[in-house]
Amino acid sequence: MIQAVKLTKRFEDITAVDHIDAAIREGSVFGLIGTNGAGKSTFLRLASGILKPDEGHITIDGQEVFENPAAKRMVFYISDEAYFFSNASPLDMMAYYSRVYERFDKERFRRLLKSFGLDEKRRIHTFSKGMKKQVSVICGICANTKYLFCDETFDGLDPVMRQAVKSLFAADMEDRNLTPIIASHNLRELEDICDHVGLLHKGGILLSKDLDDMKLNIHKIQCVLQPGMEPEDLVSFEVLSTERRGRLLTLTVRGTREEIEAKLGACDPVFFECIPLTLEEIFISETEVAGYDVKKLVF
Question: For 248-263, how does the pLDDT look when each residue is reduced to its tens digit (9 = 90+)?
Fold first, then answer.
């Protein structure tokens, strides 16, 4: 398990990660989402032992990560900007990582390169962005680490390759209990693969929940109230946002479907329906509550 306790990292006068408490259990896919500059990449670098916390600590299976080779060998970090040695080929990177990670699977590495249509002897700097991402993913998978940290890993991959990468993750989760932690802005992509989601905003964590639980406890209501009733009269609801078009109200509220339908039914509306939110809609609703409102940014 990965455990962060009051984890904090500052860069001069900027607090990139602000007293985060989080627990990431084994064998699940943890999605790390957040606003721009929320601290997702910094969190992954702290968890990888690349950066040293200014306050608090982060452990992997009970071990502090920073300057701890034993803990770092449990992790492979795929950064947003893929880095390879100058003029290196995939075979050169295989030779390097096989020295760092004792369980690196060279045979599988070469097999996956062939399956992905990548020339093992070609210089990586001549590859496209998507091809470089593929090499990074193959390196990460073949390192056979317990945890795989992915920073915008799906960015630059075409739909077929995105599905192939998801299949690799799923197979390794089944075969060896791999735990991927995926930071991404593509929430639709995460919705397909993640079990648990952590939402970061301004360096802090707004929420951390199982995705299914999150979806079951926040809903969108479309309704037409009785004449004379206003949204403010719905005092029994925890309303996150309200939108009105004529008499049609669209409300985003917390609560289970059963609770919401019972409360709204008691108000005897002319019409109503309860709709589950997508992960993207949940993200927008939660960050609006925290003051990150698109209407204030644009209009």
Answer: 988 888 888 888 888 8
> Does residue 224 sit in the same domain as residue 201?
no
Q: Residue 78's closest CA among 18, 2, 186, 155?
A: 155
pTM of the predicted model, to two decimals? 0.79
Contacts of 112 (CB under 8 A, 6+ apart): 138, 141, 142, 168
How many angstroms separate the CA atoms of 280 and 282, rounded?
5
CA 154 to chain centre: 11
Q: Count CB atoms within 10 A of the CB of residue 278.
A: 14
Alpha carbon 40 to its chain's center: 8
CATH number, domain containing residue 276:
3.30.70
Tell me which residue of 10, 35, 50 sits closest to 202, measured CA to CA.
35
Q: What mean pLDDT comes out for the span 173-181?
A: 93
Kindly state the tokens that stand for 100.
């760092």
Q: Does residue 37 share a domain with residue 118? A: yes
Crossing angle for the helix pair 129-142 and 90-100, to the nearest 10 degrees: 30
